[in-house]
Design goal:
- By secondary structure, the chain is mainly beta.
- 13% of the residues lie in helices and 46% in strands.
- A hairpin with a 6-residue loop joins strand 4 and strand 5.
Length: 89
């Protein structure tokens, strides 16, 4: 499973992660975590100053820096929660 790791080392299982070509927001779908934990983590700029997307078990990864503006969340029918963050310039 893919993961998002925050600047302080918190890890979340995700289904996908990517940057939108429409509004340039970084979005990812978290599974297995409650909304309160997601909100307290991803509204904190100290947590989101560096996000590491661990792509596979071969340790392939992507790093995202500066996505410290919280845009919102969306709860999907499969209970995944989509997080949207905007890069702070």
């Amino acid at each position: 499973m893919q993961k998002i790791i925050t600047a302080t080392g918190k890890e979340f299982d995700i289904v996908w992660c990517g940057r939108s070509t429409i509004d340039f927001a970084l979005r990812f779908a978290i599974q297995g975590t409650d909304m309160a934990t997601i909100l307290s983590t991803f509204t904190n700029p100290e947590e989101t100053s560096l996000l590491i997307h661990l792509i596979d078990t071969m340790n392939n990864k992507a790093e995202y820096r500066g996505f410290t503006t919280f845009k919102g969340v969306d709860l999907h029918p499969d209970n995944s929660i989509i997080v949207a963050l905007i890069e702070t310039v």
